Amino acid sequence: MSYASKNSEKKDHLYKILVIGDLGAGKTSIIKRYVHRFFTQHYRATIGVDFALKVLNWDENTLIRLQLWDIAGQERYGNMTRVYYKEAVGAFIVFDVTRVNTFESVAKWKSDLDSKVQLSDGSPIPCVLLANKCDQPKEGLINNSHKMEEYCKENSFTAWFETSAKDNINIDEAAKALVTKILENDTLLNAESSKDEGKFSISKETNAQKNGKMCSC
After folding, report:
1. What is the average per-residue pLDDT within 163-187?
2. Which helix (H) or strand (E) element contains residue 129?
3. CA nearest 132: which of 31, 16, 15, 44?
4. Residue 113, CA atoms < 13 Å, CB-side half-sphere
5. pLDDT digits over 52-109, tens only?
6. Average pLDDT of the chain?
7. Residue 8 pLDDT more than 60?
8. Which of 4, 6, 64, 204 lies deepest, with the highest CB count within 10 Å?
9. What Cα–Cα distance (Å) separates residue 21 from each residue in 13, 68, 103, 108, 211?
10. CA–CA gap between residue 81 and residue 113 (Å, rounded)
11. pLDDT per residue over 117-131, tens digit each?
12. Is residue 69 within 8 Å of residue 49, measured between CB atoms?
């Protein structure tokens, strides 16, 4: 293989992303806006889980495929969420700023998520909170950005954004923040894995030497 073709070869990542939150919070609308650049107010409620694929040319060396899992709002208390969450590396939790009860459910969604899926080192997967429908009158804590920052810090959210699928506000920015964090985690976990492999091979060699199994041929 020539140097030029090696240089032009892109790293290809496939990441599973969960989109969760109460029924009617706007999860499907956000995904449609992000993936298809499309909005309509006429969606049927998602039953179970739906899927979408977003391909990002992240930079000249990196191609990212996001497999977005749109999980029905009524699924939180079901046994299927453990199956749906499996192997996810990031998540969005969505609430509707016009309905304070959907915000009250956010902590329960986050707790459910953290209990059912972790990264390979046991830490929670990165999660971005989306305060959706920000083009409409807002209810509750969302009106105080300082308290929202505190809330997200206390509940270990990577970041939070006010979003509107209708007016295309902060959808791309929120996705970029999540993917950036996923890539950071990927780099760190791969580095740790390489260190562990190095330690393992040194350990094997040391044991072999102790047992007199090293040959000088």
Report:
1. 96
2. strand 127-132
3. 31
4. 29
5. 999 999 999 999 999 999 998 776 556 678 889 999 999 999 999 999 999 999 999 9
6. 85
7. no
8. 64
9. 26, 14, 9, 9, 57
10. 8
11. 999 999 999 999 999
12. yes
Residue with tokens 């809330």, as numbered in its chain? 151
Tell me if the pTM is above 0.90: no
CA dist., res. 146 & res. 37, Å (int): 31
Q: Scanning the structure block, which residue is given the tokens 């044991």?
A: 207
Question: How many residues does this entry show for the chain?
Answer: 217
Locate 168 and state its tokens. 């295309």
Residues 6+ apart with CB under 8 A from 112: 76, 81
Tokens of 56: 């990002």
d(CA 203, CA 84): 38
